[in-house]
Amino acid sequence: MTQTQAQTTGTTPQTPEAQGLTIAEVRLTPILVADPPLLNTQGVHQPYTPRLIIEVVTEGGTTGIGETYGDTKYLDLARPLAEKLPGHSVTDLNGLFTLADEVAVDASRVENSVDVGGLRGVQTADKLRLSIVSGFEVACLDAWGKAAGLPVHALLGGKVRDRVEYSAYLFYRWAEHPDGVACEPDDWDAAVDPAGVVAQAERFARDYGFTSFKLKGGVFEPDQEIAAIRALAERFPGQPMRLDPNGAWSVPTSLHVAEELRDVLEYLEDPTSGTPGMAEVAGSAGVPLATNMCVTTFGEIREAFTKGAVQVVLSDHHYWGGLRNTRELAAICRTFGVGLSMHSNTHLGISLAAMTHVAATVPNLDYACDSHYPWQTEDVITERLTFRDGRLDVPDAPGLGVELDRERLAVLHQRWLDDDGTMRDRDDAAAMRVADPDWVTPAIPRW
Ligand SMILES: O=C([O-])C(=O)C[C@H](O)[C@@H](O)C(=O)[O-]
Ligand SMILES: [Mg+2]
């Protein structure tokens, strides 16, 4: 609105400064969150996993919250970025990226080309930065929304659905962490065979109403995992199934699994590692391939899409750089006729709320989203989000619609302070060595 228009209509343009939206303070709180002994191809989850909680406080007194990875390499980037934010507006989301570009990434953090700890594809300086920016972006959107009285989805252009569907994220798991390991036990049974996986799925279906099922594979011989999916398909006929070995199979093994499960799989997720191998599998698998490993950055899209290597991208606002970047990814997928689903790592309610807000705004979110949330017995929000019929209601309260529980935050931060460093960086292979001292991260392809 121009000055003249403002005078005619009798309103005064309000700058973000005048509205108190300038950032006065940023608080970073690393925490350790209880995690069950979930198995994947690299090992087993540690009993505690690091997360970072970000609070952005405006001059107007509004606090916005965000959540992202909390390993040391992320904290090392979050701290200098946090120092740069005071004086900037929570509405200046593009400016956040410029500020983040000024934060140098320690080259030793990116020398391995693959993020082995997180099974999340390449590890570049940009991707590390984006993983941090996303947490700040969510905190800024939350503060902005709270100050304006608008839900985050409205700041993203508005929701196109009122509920977001999630899938059951099944894991092979032990009942407990190894003897003598400090942990927070849960009440889930072991699941190391088809019967255990089916029992786990039944509980997910009963308690949360999920109707599609993803099994984290790459743990046992492929034929055992084929048997588990077959058992699931028999127990839940006609319901969508997914299997994700995190790139652990060769091309021939991937094609064998595809052949055996073609009739029941909604998609096969990262059967083999790398875009060329995925393209080879995609060429004759007869089942769509999904990925959160070979397309995890904008730079990887062109090769994968032009080679037809993936039919579904699993977005993840954490490493794609936030909720707005997730929408950009969605637009690119839409343009290329590639499907979109959502990836998840161990996360708490702040991130689940953020995932739900952005998912609500994306027209082409074609599949139920992944979420680890049901595995998390701890949280830092005052009221846990509840799945009904496998779905979450999209919050319409201002901001993300969740509130920080400061007491719980303090307890989980104290656990991080008390840790001797063992748990502060996720390392599934090291956690596995506690049970099996000879364990080394398996070379890929494992089968
Ligand atoms: O879909 C995926 O590849 C993942 O969720 C990666 C995660 O790290 C998962 O494998 C896990 O938590 O063990
Ligand atoms: Mg995956």
TrEMBL record:
Which residues are catalytic?
K216 (proton acceptor), H343 (proton acceptor)
> Does the record's keyword annotation contain Lyase?
yes
Disordered: annotated segments: 1-20
Q: Which family does it belong to?
A: Belongs to the mandelate racemase/muconate lactonizing enzyme family. GlucD subfamily.
Domain Mandelate racemase/muconate lactonizing enzyme C-terminal: from-to ranges:
194-288
What organism, scientifically named, is this protein from? Streptomyces botrytidirepellens
EC number per UniProt: 4.2.1.40
Can you say what this protein is called?
glucarate dehydratase
